[in-house]
Amino acid sequence: MKVLANDGISKSGILALEKGGFEVIxxxxxxxxxxxxxxxxxxxxxxxxxxxxxxxxIIDACPGLKIIGRGGVGMDNIDVDxxxxxxxxxxxxxxxxxxxxxxxxFAHLFSGVRFLHDSNxxxxxxxxxxxxxxxxxxxxxxxxxGKTLGVVGIGRIGQATxxxxxxxxxxxxxxxxxxxxxxxxxxxxxxxxxxxxxxSQSLESLFKEADFITLHVPAQDGYIIGEKELAIMKNxxxxxxxxxGGVIDEVAxxxxxxxxxxxxxxxxxxxxxxxxxxxxxxxxxxxLTPHIGAATxxxxxxxxxxxxxxxxxxLG
Length: 316
What we know:
Layout: E1 2-5, H1 11-19, E2 23-25, H2 34-40, E3 43-48, H3 56-61, E4 67-70, H4 80-85, E5 89-92, H5 98-113, H6 116-126, H7 131-137, E6 148-152, H8 156-167, E7 171-175, E8 181-187, E9 193-199, H9 203-209, E10 212-215, H10 227-232, E11 237-241, H11 250-259, E12 262-267, H12 278-281, E13 286-288, H13 297-315
Parallel strand pairs: 1-2, 1-3, 3-4, 4-5, 6-7, 6-10, 10-11, 11-12, 12-13
Antiparallel strand pairs: 8-9
Helix pairs in contact: 1-13, 5-8
């Protein structure tokens, strides 16, 4: 049987699938050609990440499709319920990328509180002519230790982020309408660990209390953070979004950054991907990455092997 990994798959995933008797195709097929390619090559499994969309049109056009797999967590680029109604298995890898995304959240937090994103832009331009001026401009850093991190969505990635925050000595609060409370176990290199319980609170109270806010939610119909929500936050709050574009009103965010209400933002995802707004890209108070939350070698290895094991157990 043939597997089309249209957005790529790790070497370990390919090897596991081939060992299970599958032929893996890693040719990148254009979105509008996916259905034709699947049919012409008798592909049984289509694997995607965030780039390729598997909507009703592809599902209807490909009667031989048995599995649609998403390397990662979010399934908003797949018509999941419709696929299942047609007898197609839909799989993903919700646990594989948690650590990688959580580390990127802290890369943005550290960058924001010490102005690294802006410093790295300006040091090559002015470092030799305006060293003292830049030193003064970036002198008002903030420590994360002792501050309150508000985690919106305390699922797997939210929990991984909470663990890192606790390890840094931060207070962690959370809001999640589906998870009333969760035990967070922080494990250390020598086998010791501590466990603490986080009880979900209202979004409104989290926005009022948090020094920094990180979002870990699926795609939404509307904004989670808009003008109204920004207004009730602390002055000088930092906001990080490594979840999904469209959960923050970017126009309202830029306005809050310009006014000083928001100290900085860290964005890995955007309302308009893959062409984010220039007002976002050029804002010196925003730390930017191009949707790379799960893009580490370790996460991609886990994603590939987990997808392979699920496929083999279903079709093997």
